[in-house]
């Protein structure tokens, strides 16, 4: 688990550097959701902000285990953004693809926790200078990955397994923030709301109903 892969392997160093920089433009997802006045769920902004801070912190330490995290993230995101590209082109991938992507994200969190546990055990047996990863980094990383697992598992249940999800009824905030046009990271289950205009119509209808109640 040497940290020299960043310094000695120019290809790995280059893609690691790009990975760290990519966390800034990924915030554009959040900006678009806010500008379009769509509901912003906690999972979205929490995930983006914490990944950015942890990635930049780990890069300053040349964290050895980072190569695992980077490869996993690149792989999952390549599938996820391909899904978004198809949705943006008005293709309708089957619901199973959305479920697969969220499952991949959950798997990523489990593997992330396992790697941190392994790294901690390695430091305890081989010595703290045997691997370029700090105890603080391990604690922050496992807390981050575990919190992601809980949040993504909750999202998966509410979106695909809950009673409302099976009946095709989904919370407005989940649907609105996971349309293809929003570029949101959390996959919808293929509901009838497929674009910004549909979401706006739904919200407008809710506001109209609220106004009638107040008038009465």
Automatic annotation (TrEMBL):
Any one GO CC term of the record: endoplasmic reticulum membrane
Recorded topology in the membrane: Multi-pass membrane protein
EC code: 2.3.1.199
Domain of life of the source: Eukaryota
Matches recorded under InterPro entries: ELO_CS, ELO_fam
Reaction(s) catalysed by this chain's protein: a very-long-chain acyl-CoA + malonyl-CoA + H(+) = a very-long-chain 3-oxoacyl-CoA + CO2 + CoA
One matching Pfam family: ELO
Primary localization: membrane
MF GO annotations: fatty acid elongase activity
Coiled-coil region: none
GO biological process per UniProt: fatty acid elongation, monounsaturated fatty acid; fatty acid elongation, polyunsaturated fatty acid; fatty acid elongation, saturated fatty acid; sphingolipid biosynthetic process; very long-chain fatty acid biosynthetic process
Localization of this protein: Membrane
Top enzyme class: transferase
Keyword terms, alphabetized: Fatty acid biosynthesis, Fatty acid metabolism, Lipid biosynthesis, Lipid metabolism, Membrane, Transferase, Transmembrane, Transmembrane helix
Transmembrane segments: 14-35, 42-59, 65-86, 98-118, 138-157
PANTHER family listed in its UniProt record: ELONGATION OF VERY LONG CHAIN FATTY ACIDS PROTEIN 6, FATTY ACID ACYL TRANSFERASE-RELATED
Record family assignment: Belongs to the ELO family.
Protein known as: Elongation of very long chain fatty acids protein
């Amino acid at each position: 688990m040497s940290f020299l892969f960043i310094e000695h392997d120019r290809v790995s160093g280059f893609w690691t550097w790009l990975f760290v920089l990519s966390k800034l433009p990924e915030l554009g997802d959040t900006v678009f959701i806010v500008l379009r006045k769509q509901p912003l769920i906690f999972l979205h902004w929490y995930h983006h902000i914490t990944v950015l801070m942890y990635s930049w912190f780990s890069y300053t330490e040349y964290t050895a285990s980072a190569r695992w995290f980077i490869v996993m993230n690149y792989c999952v995101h390549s599938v996820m953004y391909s899904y978004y590209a198809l949705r943006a082109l008005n293709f309708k991938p089957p619901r199973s693809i959305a479920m697969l992507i969220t499952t991949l994200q959950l798997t990523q969190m489990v593997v992330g926790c396992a790697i941190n546990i392994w790294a901690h055990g390695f430091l305890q047996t081989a010595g703290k200078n045997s691997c370029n990863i700090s105890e603080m980094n391990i604690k922050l990383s496992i807390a981050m990955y575990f919190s992601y697992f809980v949040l993504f598992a909750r999202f998966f249940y509410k979106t695909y397994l809950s009673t409302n999800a099976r009946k095709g009824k989904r919370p407005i905030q989940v649907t609105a923030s996971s349309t293809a046009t929003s570029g949101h990271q959390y996959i919808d289950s293929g509901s009838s709301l497929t674009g910004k205009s549909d979401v706006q119509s739904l919200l407008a209808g809710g506001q109209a109903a609220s106004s009638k109640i107040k008038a009465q």
